[in-house]
Amino acid sequence: MDPKNKTKIVLITGGSRGIGKSIAISAAKRGIDVILTYNSNPEQGRAVANEINDNGGKAVALHLDTSRTDTFDGFADQVSHLLKSEWSRNHFDYLVNNAGIAQRSLIKDTTEEIFDKIVNVNFKGVFFLTQKLSSLITDGGQIINISSALARFAFPGVAVYGALKSALEGLTRYFAKEYAERKIRVNSVAPGTIDTDFGGGKGDESHRKQLASMNALGRLGQADDVGDFVASMLSDDSRFVNAQRIEVGGGIMI
Ligand SMILES: NC(=O)c1ccc[n+]([C@@H]2O[C@H](COP(=O)([O-])OP(=O)(O)OC[C@H]3O[C@@H](n4cnc5c(N)ncnc54)[C@H](OP(=O)(O)O)[C@@H]3O)[C@@H](O)[C@H]2O)c1
């Protein structure tokens, strides 16, 4: 049994940079303990955990490649051992499926290799990681899938990415349906154009201005615009919000 009135724990994939890092730091500021994952850059992952630990929070960084479904059983075991050794617990409270990769190829140039890579990280990985970790999530906990405004409209060069984010929003509803028996809520948060290194960054000044002009607030989003919002959902204040898509994009394409 996990202790009552315990500190909440969130597991965030891709918590070493950009939006995931912001979610981790903002959650820690709200008193939530953090397990974050990195893929290619262990130093950045550990630096985020150190920043949280140095500021009175508690965080651990683990390696995870969300395209490697064959490693997910081992990762779930690692999380289970970590929960016991660091928190004397069997469960964590919130899962944020944030890790993702971009696409920059027109349909005519999209190879099967590019297609499979994006599917594996942005959709298949989310499905099977959630499946493998679900027994470690507290009943009454929450899952948040990071989608994209591109799930709602189309631009050239991101067909597979955008279609998969739409699929992820559909999957969010199916997760919510099946995990409802354990009162686990599942929502998706869809960022607009956020100024991170995603897909190589947001380009030169004129491109950035064009992207900024696409939303009603007239600016590029910052990682903290999304991170603070997602962290704010990790509480009982959102207790009746379930199976929803919430866009954080400053009113993009309205
Ligand atoms: N930025 C935007 O404009 C925007 C807009 C809409 C939606 N989103 C979504 O927001 C999420 C985060 O994007 P971001 O802008 O923060 O991206 P980012 O700055 O590029 O950071 C990506 C994060 O994901 C991790 N990652 C990449 N490939 C991975 C893999 N195969 N396995 C596990 N982790 C992996 C990276 O870890 P390493 O560095 O260690 O490899 C990093 O922590 C993504 O799902 C993205 O689709 C972003």
Ligands bound to this protein structure: NADP nicotinamide-adenine-dinucleotide phosphate
Strand content: 15-25%
Biggest beta sheet summary: 7 strands, parallel
Instruction: Specify the helix fraction band.
Output: 40-55%
Which value, in Å, is the CA radius of gyration? Answer: 18 Å
Average of the residue pLDDT scores: 97
Protein name: SDR family oxidoreductase
Family: Belongs to the short-chain dehydrogenases/reductases (SDR) family.
Keywords: Oxidoreductase
Pfam families: adh_short_C2
Can you describe this structure in just a few lines?
GO terms for molecular function: oxidoreductase activity. By secondary structure, the chain is α/β, with parallel strands linked by helices. The protein is built from seven helices and seven strands, in the order βαβαβαβαβαβααβ.
Task: Describe the 3D structure.
Helices cover 41% and strands 17% of the residues. The protein has 254 residues and is α/β, with parallel strands linked by helices. The chain has a single domain, classed as Rossmann fold. The termini are far apart. The model has no long low-confidence stretch (mean pLDDT 97). NADP nicotinamide-adenine-dinucleotide phosphate binds at residues 13-14, 16-20, 38-41, 44-45, 64-67, 98-101, 121, 146, 148, 191, 193-194, 196-198.
